[in-house]
Design goal:
Layout: E1 9-12, H1 22-49, H2 56-84, E2 89-91, H3 92-125, H4 130-133, H5 136-162, E3 170-171, H6 178-182, H7 190-222, H8 227-247, H9 257-265, H10 273-298, H11 300-310
Parallel strand pairs: 1-3
Antiparallel strand pairs: 1-2
Helix pairs in contact: 1-2, 1-10, 1-11, 2-3, 2-10, 3-5, 3-7, 3-8, 5-7, 8-10, 9-10, 10-11
C-alpha cells in the first residue's frame, strides 16, 4: 500500500530483475535507438532536399518518419536511463506524459497510414482527378486530421486515468502504459474501459476497414489493366501494405499492438524477463525501424537519392 491515493511516483518493477544484464542491454538498446534515429533522419533529409519528392505520397512518408522519431524518443530516452539506474521511480506527471506520447505515436501511425491509403486509392482509381483532389490544401487538411484526432482521443483517456485514486504505485512494465495504471484503481473503472474500447475501435478498426476498402477497389481496377500498370501499382503500394500489415490486426497484431495489449493483461514478473522486455520493445521498435527500410529500399524515387547522398 502507499500513503496516498494519488502517488507522486510510479515504480517500474521489471527493471529490478535485470541484474548484470543491464550493461549489455543498455549497449544493444542504445545502438538500436541510434539506428532508428539515423534511418529515419536519412528519409527526412532526402525528402526535404529532393524537390522531385515534394509530392503528396512522399510528404506522408516524411510524416511517418517524423512520427517514428517522436515515438521512439518518447520511449528510449527514459528507458536507457532506467536500465542503468538503481531506482526506477518515475514522476506521476512524467508517467502520464509518457503514456500520452507512446499512445499518440501508435495512433498517429495508423491515421497517417490511412490517409496514405486514400492517396493511393485516388492515384490508382481516379488518376484523372488526382491533382484536383490531392492538392496541397487537401494534403495539409489530411495531415492535420491525422494528427488532431489521436491527440484529442488519447488526451481524453489519459485525463480519465489521471483522476483515478490508486491502491499501489507499481507498474510491471518497462514503460508507463494506460491499462496497467487503470488496473491499480481502487474505484470502478467502467467509464475508462468504455472510453478506452471506443477509442481503440475508432483508432484501430476504422483505419483497418478503410484501408481494406481502398485496396479492394485498387485490386478491382488493376484486374482490368495491363501488366505494366499492375507493376507500377504494386511498386507504389507494396511498401504501404507491408507497413500496415505489420501494424494493424488481424494479420500481425501479435507483432505490434497485440504484444503490448497482451503484456498488459499478464503478470510480467511471472513471465521470462527477456520475453517481457522483448514484447515491450517490439511495440515501439519494429515500426520505426521497418518504415525507413521498406520505403527506402522499395521505392526507387527515395532509394536512388539515398545512395547518392551516402556515396558523397
Amino acid at each position: 500500500m502507499i500513503n496516498s491515493s494519488f502517488p507522486l511516483y510510479f515504480n517500474l518493477t521489471v527493471f529490478v530483475h535485470m541484474g548484470s544484464y543491464r550493461y549489455l542491454t543498455f549497449i544493444l538498446c542504445f545502438l538500436l535507438y541510434a539506428t532508428i534515429i539515423s534511418a529515419n533522419l536519412v528519409i527526412i533529409v532526402v525528402i526535404v532536399r529532393e524537390k522531385s519528392l515534394h509530392e503528396t505520397m512522399y510528404i506522408f512518408i516524411l510524416c511517418l518518419s517524423i512520427n517514428s522519431l517522436y515515438g521512439c524518443s518518447g520511449f528510449f530516452l527514459r528507458f536507457l536511463q532506467d536500465i542503468l539506474s538503481d531506482t526506477h521511480l518515475i514522476l506521476r506527471s512524467a508517467c502520464l506524459t509518457q503514456i500520452y506520447v507512446i499512445y499518440t505515436y501508435a495512433s498517429y501511425e495508423l491515421t497517417i497510414l490511412s490517409v496514405m491509403a486514400y492517396d493511393r486509392y485516388v492515384a490508382v482509381c481516379q488518376p484523372l482527378h488526382y491533382h484536383n483532389k490531392m492538392t496541397s490544401k487537401a494534403m495539409s487538411a489530411l495531415v492535420v486530421l491525422a494528427w488532431f484526432y489521436p491527440s484529442f482521443s488519447v488526451s481524453t483517456c489519459v485525463y480519465l486515468t489521471s483522476t483515478l485514486p490508486l491502491y499501489s504505485n507499481k507498474i510491471p512494465k518497462v514503460f508507463c502504459a494506460n491499462w496497467p495504471v487503470v488496473k491499480l484503481s481502487c474505484v470502478p473503472t467502467v467509464i475508462n474501459n468504455l472510453v478506452g474500447m471506443l477509442v481503440s475501435m475508432i483508432t484501430v478498426f476504422l483505419p483497418l476497414v478503410f484501408v481494406l476498402y481502398t485496396y479492394v477497389r485498387i485490386f478491382l481496377v488493376c484486374r482490368k489493366c495491363s501488366p505494366e500498370f499492375k507493376g507500377k501499382v504494386i511498386q507504389s503500394c507494396l511498401p504501404h501494405i507491408i507497413t500496415f500489415v505489420n501494424y494493424v490486426p488481424p494479420e500481425n497484431t501479435v507483432i505490434t499492438v497485440f504484444c503490448d495489449v497482451v503484456l498488459s493483461r499478464f503478470d510480467v514478473e511471472q513471465l521470462n524477463l527477456f520475453l517481457a522486455v522483448t514484447l515491450s520493445l517490439e511495440f515501439v521498435v519494429i515500426p520505426p525501424i521497418l518504415n525507413p527500410l521498406v520505403y527506402g529500399l522499395k521505392l526507387p524515387e527515395i532509394r536512388k537519392p539515398i545512395f547518392r547522398m551516402l556515396s558523397y
